[in-house]
Amino acid sequence: MTTSDFHKRLVDKYGADPDAEIDFPRGWRTLVETVFKMLHETDLEAALKVHQVKEKFGHLRIHLEYEGPHADRFFQYVAAAEDRALRICNRCGGPSHMRSDWPLKTTEVMCDTCLSAARVRDQLDRRRTEIVAAVRDWCAKSAAAGNWITTSDYALHRWRKDSEIKRESMNQAFRLVVSELDIMVTKNLKKQVSDFEVYQQLVDKIDIDEIIKRVS
Ligand SMILES: [Zn+2]
Question: What residues have CB less than 8 Å from 204, skipping those under 6 apart?
Answer without folding.
Answer: none
